[in-house]
Amino acid sequence: MTTGARFCPRCGGALAGPPPTACPHCGYAMFVNARPTANLILLDGDGRFLSVRRAIPPRAGLWELPGGFCDGWEHPADAAVREAREELGIDVELGELVGLYIGSYEYQNELLPVLDAYFIGHAAEPTITLNAAEVSDMAWFDLADPPPMAFESMDRALRDAAKVR
Ligand SMILES: [Zn+2]
Predict the structure, then answer these.
(1) Of 50, 145, 147, 148, whose CB is crowded by the most CB atoms within 10 A?
(2) Ligand 1 centroid vs 71 CA: distance in angstroms?
């Protein structure tokens, strides 16, 4: 598992070490920054939150919160709304930001830092239709007693959300 590029994206030359570093061939400066994600703690009226089961790697089969990576210049609040539409087939009303968390994401044999934003949300329509390409199952859990999540920042965000409810 590596933490990113071993070759310069500008000239293709080998880097002397992991980023942050400058390419010894052309001087291009390489950085590793946390990639932003947006995630939802979708609440019902009884203090329960919605969890979905991952259908795809990494961590397929584990419970997680709806969400995903922000596109390009997309604001995390917009990404959270978009992900609910894509994964759950619903519009959501966003509530407060629970917090920002630094986590790790393994994919394509790379370990990448991520900056995970968690928002409270409420479904704006009653019928959830899961996107089977991304998630395989759903369940409502008590916010005070969540199951282990696929990613550690989800466990932390759920604990923090439970404190203020
Ligand atoms: Zn270079």
Answers:
(1) 50
(2) 26
